[in-house]
Amino acid sequence: MNCSSKSFPDLDLIRKKPRDYIEWKTLRLWDRLPASERDTPGYLLRMAREKAELTQKQLAEELETTQQAVAQAERWTSNPSINFMKRWAAACGTRIRIELE
Fold this sequence. Notes:
With 101 residues, this protein is an all-alpha fold. It has helices spanning 21-29, 41-51, 56-63, 67-73, 82-91. It has a domain at 42-95: 434 Repressor (Amino-terminal Domain) (Orthogonal Bundle), CATH 1.10.260. It is globular. The chain contains five helices and no strands. The model has no long low-confidence stretch (mean pLDDT 86).
């Protein structure tokens, strides 16, 4: 019996173990992430920083914080405030959009 995710399209399991950033980024590029993982704040922030070609240290200076704070914000489990994400986006030359449906 085939138990692939195609067999259960409505099944969206919550992952307990954090996904590696490279794996997450690749699956996102391929549009293969479960809905519960598409908008992981820390990884989205890291993606914006990388796209802006900034190091963690450079971004930290821009945000007037430490490199360690930037590294912590880029983790799978981070829970940054909306204000922090807006400042981050501005420093990376992008915008943030939040939607409620």
